[in-house]
Amino acid sequence: MKIHILVLILLAFPGYMPARKRFDLFLIDGSKIKGRVMSVTASEVTLMSDFGMLRLDLQKLTAETRAKLTESNKPDSTALLQRIAEREATVS
After folding, report:
1. What is the pTM of this model?
2. CATH fold of 19-75, please?
3. What is the DSSP secondary-structure string of 11-50?
């Protein structure tokens, strides 16, 4: 139940969500896409651009861009645990 309330709070108040900086994605074909990286999986990256939400296959990105994405999106487990504890305290 606490998790559901926490999710509702985070969705209701987007200011609590961490700010994501703009990122330049360079594609193999030479084009560039700017936006905020929302998530990175083993096969694709989800990007919020000025034109909407985009999902791109990692194989279409340059090797340098793939390296930057994996480096910049490593989760900081201690910071995440601290944020969860803060949100649980707020809900309580």
Report:
1. 0.55
2. SH3 type barrels. (2.30.30)
3. HH-GGGSPP--EEEEEBTTS-EEEEEEEEE-SSEEEEEET
